[in-house]
Amino acid sequence: MLREKLKQKIISDPIQCMAYLTELVKSNRIYDGEVLAIIIDVIKNGPDQLTNMQWDVLLDKGLLPDLYVECDSCEDTIPWSEMYRAIFRARDHYCPFCI
Fold first, then answer.
1. Which of 15, 31, 69, 97 has the greatest number of CB atoms lying within 10 Å of its CB?
2. Torsion over CA of 43, 23, 77 and 2, rounded to 10 degrees?
3. pLDDT exceeds 80 at position 1
């Protein structure tokens, strides 16, 4: 369920997602070479061109383990623009409304 929800969030807001992915790459948060290659491809070309296999890697090995969270308080989605803060800076996993 979360996997499909995340995929739809990426497709519906690719610009903000690509900004978040860029922030992850610039801060050296991507440790898997295969995931990094796919993320760089998404940053350059957008998510529309990903194959099913690339989606699987991006979601399962890239974002879902540690790089995507939903709010711990209200369980709402956290905007891409706040995701890095919620995971790495504040480490609270809260959306902007629950901070």
1. 69
2. 60
3. no
